[in-house]
């Protein structure tokens, strides 16, 4: 917890000069836009090369729907290489099968109270496969089953500004950070408020698209 608070203090120090007093951000409700088909046969583990584009799970429209007043929204797909250490030790060559070309999507935007686009949100695909296997993997890796920010999600203070979620054949991670104040929180966003009020809505938006 001490390291989490130190990290937040550093973030506030770096971004504090770019915030404007008086303005508070508002939270809206997610709107499910489109569908993302994810085929997964019984017992199958889908290779990273066949994972969905993370930017199809959340869009700039989702940012605007949940974080009212967000402007200057930029979306950047990122490559991920989701191999475990034992897998890497057995075969250190990265191949197309072990790389997800757009397995992560990063958003940067400006919220009311900021003079620059300093707030961020990201979504990263963590696993794709048979829903039964994904559920078992999620339960095996989850940290705090008693502190969920939303249905089928897992997060606690050790996760700080992040959460891990699942929906059917998909397991994904969400994270981000901001230094602005929210009207609903009546003050600067804490990591708990971000997880429970913000990430939970984005988790619902992403999960609602999975087919």
UniProtKB/TrEMBL annotation:
In terms of superkingdom, the source organism counts as: Bacteria
Sorted UniProt keywords: Signal
Q: Which residues form the signal peptide?
A: 1-21
According to UniProt, the name of this protein is: DUF3558 domain-containing protein
Q: Which organism is it from?
A: Amycolatopsis suaedae
């Amino acid at each position: 917890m001490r390291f989490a608070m130190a990290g937040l203090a550093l973030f506030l120090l770096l971004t504090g000069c770019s915030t404007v007093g008086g303005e508070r951000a508002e939270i809206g409700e997610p709107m499910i836009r489109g569908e993302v088909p994810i085929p997964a046969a019984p017992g199958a583990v889908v290779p990273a090369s066949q994972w969905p584009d993370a930017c199809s799970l959340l869009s700039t429209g989702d940012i605007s729907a949940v974080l009212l007043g967000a402007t200057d929204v930029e979306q950047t797909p990122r490559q991920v290489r989701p191999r475990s250490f034992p897998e890497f030790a057995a075969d250190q060559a990265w191949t197309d099968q072990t790389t997800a070309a757009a397995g992560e999507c990063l958003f940067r935007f400006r919220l009311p109270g900021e003079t620059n686009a300093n707030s961020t949100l990201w979504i990263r695909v963590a696993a794709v496969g048979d829903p039964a296997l994904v559920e078992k993997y999620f339960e095996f890796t989850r940290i705090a089953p008693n502190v969920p920010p939303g249905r089928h999600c897992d997060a606690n203070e050790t996760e700080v500004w992040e959460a891990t979620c699942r929906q059917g054949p998909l397991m994904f991670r969400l994270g981000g950070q901001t230094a602005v104040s929210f009207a609903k929180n009546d003050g600067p966003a804490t990591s708990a408020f971000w997880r429970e009020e913000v990430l939970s809505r984005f988790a619902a938006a992403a999960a609602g698209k999975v087919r």
